[in-house]
Amino acid sequence: MLVAEDVVIDDFSLYPKDQFPKSEEKNEIWGIWSRNFFSTDQYKVREEEGGNKYLEAYTDERIKEKKIDEEEEVEMDVKVVRLVKKNKFEAQVTPYLRWKWRVHIFPTGSEENVQYLNDTAASVYVYFLRQVGSPKIIQYIWSRALPVGSVFKNPSDNGDFPTYFKIIRSGPGPQDEKGLQWVQEEVNVYQDFIDIYVKENPDIYYKTLANSEKVLDLPPVMGIGVLTDANNTATEAKADYDDFIRSDQSLH
Ligand SMILES: [Ca+2]
Ligand SMILES: [Ca+2]
What is the distance between the alpha carbons of residues 203 and 141, in angstroms, rounded to a whole number? Predict the structure, then answer.
């Protein structure tokens, strides 16, 4: 019997609160998936009662992003900020990705499958990448309205970041007398890659062994990320994220 191996990708305990998640002394850092950008007002580490730290994402029209432009720090209006954390692993070895989250505000009227309404209150993505080629992204979405189980191409995809959306939760989350409750998720990134990308293009994800047997050969996962956006609907969105863990054993 295998012993479960859980690797904490991030539980946000190392970062100072009320700041962008960055702790240089621990060499722990989240970045922004666009060149030269290094900071944003949108994502901040918060501390809740009892001392747990988590990541809060909030966006509206006023969100600014800081950029180094010809060695000068400037502020930019950027309405979509994709956060990313490098964490390389083989999906075949640790297929399970877990985290918890809760959604405070869904973008009004958002529908992820319609380009001009393509906003999402909360999403977590993984990106697979070989040394050459573009990343292959699977983005797990908590949708305002779309049904759980839907899988489709990002309608805003311009080819730079080939992304499939998978709706894993829909509508408001559970509440109790203390307010919004955290919701635990677990996805199988290995199975999802096979169901989505290998099915789409089986030829490139197999290699032939010396005995002519063909075996699956997936690119490694290079990291994970989060995205909360409200730019297309020009409304606002707010969500919290915590406890990103990868594991070789399912909780179920
Ligand atoms: Ca935490
Ligand atoms: Ca959007």
Answer: 28
